[in-house]
C-alpha cells in the first residue's frame, strides 16, 4: 500500500472519528447553539427588531441572520477542534496517531475537516431555524459557500493551535471567551458599522470577523459594509499562515512529544 | 540479518537538564523475545518512547527492521506495534471502535479493519465487550485492548512496556501464552517488566539499563550462569531439634521445620540430599528462596550505584 493511500485512509478515519464524537454528544454540540440562536432570533429579531425597522437597507431580522449563522459556524468549528484535540492530548489517545505512519498534515486536515463539518452542520441548523422568523433569498450562493467554508477552516486551525498549547481544560475557553466572542459582537453581527462615529468605524475595520460577517451577509442579502475582496485575501492569508504554524508545531511535537 | 530493533549512541536530555539516556547501544535480533530491565527512572520507557516516536531523541539513532525511526519513520512505524505502560485510549469510545480506528491510522480499509478487529478481540477474549465503552473494562481487559490495538496492522516488532502490571496471576499467564504464540509466529517481542520471573521465563535475551546506561546485555541463560550461589528453602517433615552441620553448605534454620540452604555453583543437589538423609532430616518440599534473576538484577543495579 502506498503512503498516499495510507494518508487517505488515515484522513477519512480521523474525520469519521471526529464526526462520530460530536454526533454522540449532540446534546452538548448541536443543541446549545440551536437554542441560543433561537433566543437571539426571538429577542433581538422579533421583539427588539420590530421596533428598529431597517438596518443597512434591509429588515432588521434579515440583517442579523447572516451574522448569527457566521457566529455559529466559527465558534463551533473552533470549539470542536480545540476541545477534541485537547481531549486527545489529555487522554493521551493522540499517541495512537503518533505511533502510526500518519503525516502531520493528515492529522491537521482530519481535525480541521471534523471542525468544519460541525461548524457547517450547526450553520445549517441555525439557517433552518431562521426560516421560521424571516425569508432568506440567496444573493450569491458561491460567496455563501466559499466564505462559510474558508471561515470555518480558519477558526478550526485556530482551535488546533489553542489545543496544542493548552495544558488544562480552562485553557481552551480563554480565546473563545476573551477574543472570539467580543470580536464577533463587535464585528457587525447586530449593527452596520455605518452607525458608528468615524473613529470607531476605523477601529472596527481592524476586526477580521467584521469582514467574514459582511462578506457572508453580501452572499445572502447583497449588502455589505466592506469590500469582499479584502475578506477573501485575508481568509487565504490566514489559512496559509495558520496551516504553516500548525504543521511546524506538530513536527516539533510541541505539547505532544517529550 | 538486519536486527529487528537497533539503537546506537542514543542519548536523551530532557528540557530540565536530566540526562535520561547516556549514549546507549542495543540490538535485538529478528524473532527474539527480549527484555529491557531496569529500576524506575532507569531509562527503559524513554528508550522505547524514542523508538516508537513518542519521545524526541537528543542524538543518536534508532532503527526498526533497518528503517530509521526519524528519517524513514513511515516504513519504521508500519513494522512496529506499541503497547504503552499507561492506558492511552479514549475511555468513552467503544472497544471495537478503538481498534478499527487504529487500523485506519495504518491505512487498513474499513472492511479489512473490521475483520482484523474481530479476529483480535476474539483471540484476546474481548469480543463480548466490543460494544462497551472502554471505561467499562477491567484493568486486565484494558491491557488486552491495548495489545489488540497494537497488533491490528500485523507488526513485525511488538514493544510492550510493563504489559502485565497490575494484572492478576491467571490473566498474566494467559497473556504470556499469547505473547509466546505471537513470538512463535515470528513477531519479535521487546518488553519491559518489573516481574523478573516474567523475563526469566519468557525472554531469550535480556538487557539491564541503569541510570541511563546499559550495564548488561546478553542471553538470559548466560546472565543466570553468572550467579555463584542459589538459596533453597526446604520444608521438613518434622521439627528440627538442632541445625545439622552440612560441610560445604551454608545452612540457616528458617522455621522450626524449615531450613535455608545456600548451594554454590557446581555443587549438586543429590549430594545435599544424601547428607541430609544421613542426619535423618527428611524434606517434604523445596523451593528457591527468591527469583534468581531478581538476585542478579539487584546485585548489578547496586554495583552500578556504588
Structure characteristics:
heterodimer; A: 258 residues; mainly alpha; two-stranded antiparallel ribbon; 11 helices; 2 strands; B: 306 residues; alpha/beta; Alpha-Beta Plaits; 2 domains; 6-stranded mixed sheet; 10 helices; 14 strands
Structure commentary:
The complex is a heterodimer of chains A (258) and B (306). Chain A contains 11 helices and 2 strands, in the order H-H-H-E-E-H-H-H-H-H-H-H-H. Chain A is mainly alpha-helical and 258 residues long. Chain A has one domain. In chain A, a hairpin with a 2-residue loop joins strand 1 and strand 2. In chain A, helix 3 crosses helix 6, helix 6 packs across helix 7 and helix 10 crosses helix 11. Chain A is elongated. The two termini of chain A are 31 Å apart. The mean pLDDT of chain A is 90. With 306 residues, chain B is α/β, with parallel strands linked by helices. Chain B folds into 2 domains: 220 residues, Rossmann fold (3-Layer(aba) Sandwich); 79 residues, Alpha-Beta Plaits. In chain B, the strands form 3 sheets. In chain B, strands 6-7-8-3-9-10 form a 6-stranded mixed sheet, sandwiched between helices. In chain B, strands 2-1-4-5 form a 4-stranded antiparallel sheet. In chain B, helix 3 crosses helix 4. The mean pLDDT of chain B is 87. At the A-B interface, helix 1 and helix 5 of A face helix 2 and helix 3 of B.
